[in-house]
Every structure is written in structure tokens, then in C-alpha cells.
Amino acid sequence: MDEIATNALNVLFEKFWIIRDQEPDMYRTIRDREMVLKRHLQDKYGLELIVHRHFAKLEKIPVEPQSWMGIQTFDKTTDYVLFCCILAFLERKRVDEQFLLSDLTEYVAEVYPGFEKIEWSVYTIRQSLIRAMREVIGFSLIRTIDGHLEGYQSDTTEDVLYEVTVYAKYFMRAYPDDLTRFRDEHELLEQEWRRRPEDMTRRRVYRALRMTPFVRRQGEDDLDFQYIRRYRDRLQDDFIETSPFRLEVYRDVAFLNLPEPKTMYTYYPGRGSIYDVSLHVTSMLLETLEKKELVLGHIYLPFSRFKRLLHQTKERYGHGWSKDYREGSITHIMKEVLKLWENWELALVDDIEEMIDVLPGISRVIARYPKEYEEKRESRDE
Prior knowledge:
Elements: H1 3-14, E1 18-19, H2 24-32, H3 34-45, E2 49-51, E3 55-58, H4 77-91, E4 98-100, H5 101-111, H6 123-138, E5 142-146, H7 151-154, E6 161-164, H8 185-195, H9 200-211, E7 215-216, H10 223-230, H11 232-242, E8 246-249, E9 253-257, H12 273-288, E10 299-302, H13 303-317, H14 323-326, H15 330-343, E11 347-350, E12 355-358, H16 371-381
Helix pairs in contact: 4-5, 4-6, 9-10, 12-13, 12-15, 13-15
């Protein structure tokens, strides 16, 4: 695979789709390298590349669904329900057909699932609708002809005129089976693997490494992790050839590392202030940890102990944090750190048992202040 095809491959993994009218050069590149890309994606990942005359799209199916794989701007279940209702509404429309926001809200109110009737007079419901509509527009499923969506947030009589695009008919993935026969997403994924059982372990490994932050060892009989250990050199060569990532393999965890940050990717640690806090908490945790506390690389912490750890971390490192965390309560800091860790598969949180399962991979990135910074600070305090 040449450098041009490699760049196209990485773009396909990072974007939902590449629309020809919006990115004509990248679309043309994918079209020109279509066969090379399809062979690689099918052989290594078992994934399908769709090249349509209007767009190119890689059907990215994870090994295991995770909560962080959702739409990042959505923060309530209602957001997703309304989004699906909007998709159902668009299924009834022709390409280039125009409709009013009031027509959409009337339809959604009729088909909204559950016993409770949806009330557009409720401000939080309107907020959910606006978040869902912004994503529909962002995916280019509709275009705004006249009016402003934000006006509906404060005035339910505000109307907007939209037009259905050709992409609305291709957003949902076509599936050969009746989805109502599956009890949950796990059954759906199992059926997916049964449809393509050949080289399943290899494809699971490539997908997991490329599409999730970490691949953790689940036990001595973990076939996926055994594959990574046995073929780590081959995997490393493949990722060096086809991506900017480098493979790292440890006793209980494996992952792809990005040696140099690139704007196209989302990586840990990022640039936000919460990452500074997270890295300092990790450093303090590893300092106070005893080896016997590790179980397959996991660390189990009660909420009470984690709060004490946050107090210690804040006392040592808090002077250099942003104001929000420097002056924030331990409860606030704990909430933000655990949210970040869960999103990056660094921890699992059980609110009922008040326990934190700190996962393998947490120790790979830590941070302390430079020695010069600490010396200057100490001299100022004297």
C-alpha cells in the first residue's frame, strides 16, 4: 500500500464518511485506490468499504460496543431516541423534498416510543431535539433552506424549512437480518461474526487495536491477547506501514501509541486541564500502590480511598492546576477524573458498590512537574 492509499485509509477510519462535494480530492483518492483499500480492510479487519458516486464510507463495526462510542454531543437517552425518530421521518421523504420543522415535531410526537407523551413545551425536551437536529445537519442528511433552529429553543412557534439530501438514504447501515429478532447489541455482533467466521481472531485483534484505546488480557486463555503476543512483530510492521501508530505490548495490555500528536486524531493525554489532573492522580496512585494489589493489571479502589488519593494529589500538584480544579471540591474533581477514565477505558466505576476498577494501561502515561519548576516554586515559598 503506497503513501496515498495509507493516508486515505487513516481518513476513512477517522470520519463517518467522505462526501464527494465536500472533499472532492479525498473522495477521488479513495476512488482511485478503491481495490487496494478494500482488499486490505477485508483481509485485516473484515470491514466493508462502500464507494458510492456521492460518498465513500467505511462501515466501522467494533469488537465490543462501548459507551464512549456514542455521539459525543448527546448527554441524554432522549437525544438518541429523538435522533432515531428523525431518521424514521426522513425515511418517508424523497431526496430534495422539503419539509418544515413543525411537520417533523408533529411526526415525532406521534411515533415517540414509551408510555409518556412527548411535550415540546418542556425546555429540556426542546434542547434534546435541537441537539439531535444539529447532528442530523452535521451528517449532511438535511440542509437548511430558511430559518434558524436555535429560535425553536425559546419559541415553539418558530419554524424552519429543510430539504432532504441524497445522503439521508445511506446513513443507516443495510442489514440482511430482521433486527427485531435480536435481544441486544451483543447478539447482533455475534451474528455478524457468524456471517464471516474466517480469520476471526486476526480481524478481532486488528479492529480492537485500531478502534479502541486498549486491548486488555482477560485471562491466560484469552485467544486475542495470545495472538497479539505471538504475532506482535507482524502487527507492528503492518501498523508502521499503514498508519502513524506504533504497537506497544505489555503483560496485561496492548495498544497503539501515537508518537507525534496529529490534529486528525483524538488522543490521551489531550490538551484540556483535566488531563493534567488525571496524569498527576495516576502518578500518585502508582507511588502509593503495593504490588500485591494488582490482579491481572487491575487495581480495585473504594470511593473513600480514591477521595483520599485525590486529597493527596491536590496537596502536592494542585498549585499548578487550572482555577476550576485548583479551587474545586474533591467531589467535583473525582467526577471529572472518573468520567475521563471511563471514556478512555482506564477505569470502570460501580456507583452502587462505590468501587473503582482501575484498568491496565493507566500506568503508561503519568506526569510530574519539571524539577526546575519545583525548585523555583520552593524558592518563592521560602
